[in-house]
Design brief:
Blueprint: H1 3-11, E1 17-19, E2 32-40, E3 43-45, E4 48-62, H2 67-79, E5 85-91, E6 96-107
Length: 109
């Protein structure tokens, strides 16, 4: 996948979304998604990185545990061949839930 294809995939979920975070002047009301790459784990040999592997993080923020939206995200990831690890955390100070998906992505281009 390319970074552009990943952005299009996230946008297809039809929720407000941003890479890493929204601008300070555009506060968001849940539900919304932030996504980003956190770790690079390229395969390399003979002094060349020949397979670019990034860890993709997709974070869903909601006011309540939203099983329906989680199912949409999970179907989107599965339909695009991405295996993921999922973790949900309650953010008491924000009165919000964060459901985070982590997946390794082989990037093209």
């Amino acid at each position: 996948m390319t970074r552009e294809e990943i952005a299009t995939m996230i946008e297809s979920i039809k929720l407000p979304c941003a890479y890493d975070q929204f601008d300070d002047d555009t506060p968001q009301e849940p539900p919304f998604i932030c996504w980003f790459f956190s770790v690079n784990d390229d395969l390399a040999a003979d002094n060349v990185n020949y397979a670019h592997i990034e860890t993709l993080n997709v974070e869903l923020y909601t006011r309540y545990k939203d099983f329906e939206t989680e199912a949409i995200i999970e179907k989107t990831l599965n339909d695009n061949g991405l295996v993921y690890h999922k973790e949900t955390n309650k953010i008491d100070t924000e009165k919000m839930y964060q459901t985070a998906y982590e997946s390794e992505v082989l990037l093209n281009g």
